[in-house]
Amino acid sequence: MNAIFICKSQFSCSVETLFDFHESSSGFETLVTGAKGVKVLQKPGSIQKGEIAIFKITLFPGISVIWEAHHTDYEKNKFFEDTQKKGPFRFFRHRHLFFPKENESILEDRIEFDFPVLALSKYPIQLQLRAQFLERHKLTANFLKGKWTNLHCGLSEQ
To answer: What is the model's pTM?
Structure first.
């Protein structure tokens, strides 16, 4: 059974503004350049279905892997999805979900993953994902010059 990690935050902007940020090259640059130990080998042309991103990820000093992610689904202002085709996980799918809430919006990063020895690695991976996605949500709010509130960031029982 795969583990599910969710990081959900509320932003003081419309869904359209939040989605446009993720769809822009500024969004990619802002979020990826903030990640330590990540080198972009191939930048996707967009977040739409069929695009490919390739990264070199440093897991530990001296140990790196190539991570190839394919954009596998997309609906403007609702969601987009990328799935690992090559990398350290047995399975990794990341859905970026966008929900309107009055004059604001909710972003939910939902990651379903399986890793060798999942029972032992699930919690250390959760800690790493939590730090990464809280930082990504903060960078997003800073770029949009707005406020954000984290609603949940951790493993899901779903």
So the answer is: 0.93
